[in-house]
Amino acid sequence: MRSLTTVSPLAVTVLRMRRIQPACRLRGLDASIAPTGPQRAGGTTLSVAQTSVVHIASRVARMEYYALSHDVIIEEERMSHESAATGHLPVPPLTQLSEEEELFRHNVRQFAEERVRPLVKKMDEEGKFDPGLLQDFFRLGLMGINIPEEYGGAGSSFFMAVLAVEELSRVDASAGVVVDVQNTLVNNAITRWGSPALKAKYLPRLASDTVGAYALSEAGAGSDAFALQCRAIERGDHYVLTGRKLWTTNALEAGLFIVFATVNPELGYRGITAFLVERDFPGFAVGKKEDKLGIRASSTCELILDDVPVPKENILGEVGKGYKVAIETLNEGRIGIGAQMIGLAQGALQCGIQYAKERKQFGRPIAEFQAIQFLIAELATELEAARLLVYNAARLKDAGRPFVKEAAMAKYYASVVAERVTSHVVEIYGGYGFTKDYPAEKYFRDSKIGKIYEGTSNMQLQTIAKLLLGER
C-alpha cells in the first residue's frame, strides 16, 4: 500500500470531502470550498467557485482519488484497530472538529470575509442590515441550520449553528446575531415545541425566506422576565393579544414573531403562553427602532400589539406553559451569545496582533516590546478558555446531557473576555483605536451587549450559584 505521506494532500482532501458529502447539506455550501483555504501566490484567497471540489478534482486529483480511496480507508481502519487493541483510544481535543464541521467553518469564514466584511462599515454607519446579505444567508442555508431536512433545512446540529455565529461575528457581530436568533431561539423553539401543523407551516418559510424574532421583554419585564403585562384574551377560536414588547432583535426584518403573553395575570408565570404571530396580522406593528451603541446593523425594536387576533392553533406548546418555552429556549440561546462574543473577540485580537506587528515606535514594531507580548498572550489564553466553555456547552446540548450551568458559564465568561479583549485592542491601537478609521472601536462597542441581552451577567452568576448550591 502506498504511504499516505506520499499522497497529494489535495487528493486525500477530495476523498474525505466526498465521503462526508451526504452529511454536509447546507445549500450552497455542499463541499464547495476546500477546507485548507487554497491561495494564489502572493496570498490572495481564491473565490468560492475557484475552490469547488469538482473544479479541483478535475485538474489535480481525479486519478489519485480512485487509486487511493481503498488505501485511505484501509489505513484509517488499521489505525483505529491498533488503538482499540492497545486499549488506549485517543480522546480528541475539545476544540477538534469533525471533517464536516471543519469544512463548514471554513466555508462560513470565507463567506464572511468575501461577502460580509465589505459591508460592515456601511451597515454600522447606517444602522441597517443589508437586504442582499440577508438573502445570501437564506441562499446558503445559514438561516435554517438546525431545521430538519423534511422542512427544507440543513438538518444539522446545534454545534454547527454555534460555529456559524462565531465565524460571522469574527467579522461582524450584527451578522452573527441575525443568524443566532434565527437558529438558537426561533427555529429551535418551533422545532421543539411546535405542533406538526405549525412545523409544516412555518419551518419551511424560516429555512427559505422568513426572518424570525423572539419577543419576551417588556418595559417592566427585563431580568424579571415573567412580570409580563402583555395580555392574551380568549375569544372563540382565537386569542386577542394586547400590549407592548421591547428589545426585539431582528424585528425590522422579521415576518414571524414568537410573542409571550399572559392569559391570566392572577396565575403569575403559570399564565404565560407563547404565540406565533405573523407580521401582517391585524393590529400588529413594529414600532420604534432603537439607536444603539453597538451591533447597530442588527435591528432592535418595539412591538405594538393592539387587539391582535391569533388563531389558537398558533399557540406554541401549551396554554400556561409559555414560561417553560421561554426558559429552556433562552438556556440554549445563551450558548449562541457566547459564540458571538468569542467570535468578535477573536476578530478584534487578530486585528490587534497585526497592528502590533506593523506599528513601529522607538525604531521597532511594538510587538517586540514585552508589555505588548504579555498582554497578547494573556488575552489569547482567556479567549481560548472562553471558547472551550462555549464549545463544551454546545456539545452537551447536542448530546442531550444537562447543560444549563455550562451555558450560563459560557455566556458569562465569554462576555467578560470579549469586553476585556476588545478594550485592550483599542489600547494597542492607541489614538487610532479611538477613531472610526480602524476596526478596534467597533469591536469594543459591539462587545458590551454580551453582558446585557439574553440574561445579564448577574443573572448568569445567579443561575450558576443556584445550581452549584443545589437550589432548583
From TrEMBL:
Any GO MF annotation of the entry: flavin adenine dinucleotide binding
Entry annotated with the keyword Flavoprotein: yes
Quaternary structure (record): Homotetramer.
GO biological process: carboxylic acid catabolic process; fatty acid metabolic process
Names of the cofactor(s): FAD
Catalysis performed (reactions): 2-methylpropanoyl-CoA + oxidized [electron-transfer flavoprotein] + H(+) = 2-methylpropenoyl-CoA + reduced [electron-transfer flavoprotein]; (2S)-2-methylbutanoyl-CoA + oxidized [electron-transfer flavoprotein] + H(+) = (2E)-2-methylbut-2-enoyl-CoA + reduced [electron-transfer flavoprotein]; hexanoyl-CoA + oxidized [electron-transfer flavoprotein] + H(+) = (2E)-hexenoyl-CoA + reduced [electron-transfer flavoprotein]; valproyl-CoA + oxidized [electron-transfer flavoprotein] + H(+) = (2E)-2-propylpent-2-enoyl-CoA + reduced [electron-transfer flavoprotein]
Domain Acyl-CoA dehydrogenase/oxidase N-terminal: 98-208
Family listed: Belongs to the acyl-CoA dehydrogenase family.
Keywords per UniProt: Acetylation, FAD, Fatty acid metabolism, Flavoprotein, Lipid metabolism, Oxidoreductase, Phosphoprotein, Transit peptide
Domain (Acyl-CoA dehydrogenase/oxidase C-terminal): residue spans on this chain: 320-468
Protein name: Short/branched chain specific acyl-CoA dehydrogenase, mitochondrial
Organism: uncultured Acidobacteriota bacterium
Pathway the protein acts in: Lipid metabolism; mitochondrial fatty acid beta-oxidation; Amino-acid degradation; L-isoleucine degradation
EC number: 1.3.8.5
Acyl-CoA oxidase/dehydrogenase middle domain segment(s): 213-308
Main EC class the enzyme belongs to: oxidoreductase
InterPro entries: Acyl-CoA_DH_CS, Acyl-CoA_Oxase/DH_mid-dom, Acyl-CoA_Oxase/DH_mid-dom_sf, AcylCo_DH-like_C, AcylCo_DH/oxidase_C, AcylCoA_DH/ox_N, AcylCoA_DH/ox_N_sf, AcylCoA_DH/oxidase_NM_dom_sf
The keyword Transit peptide appears for this protein: yes
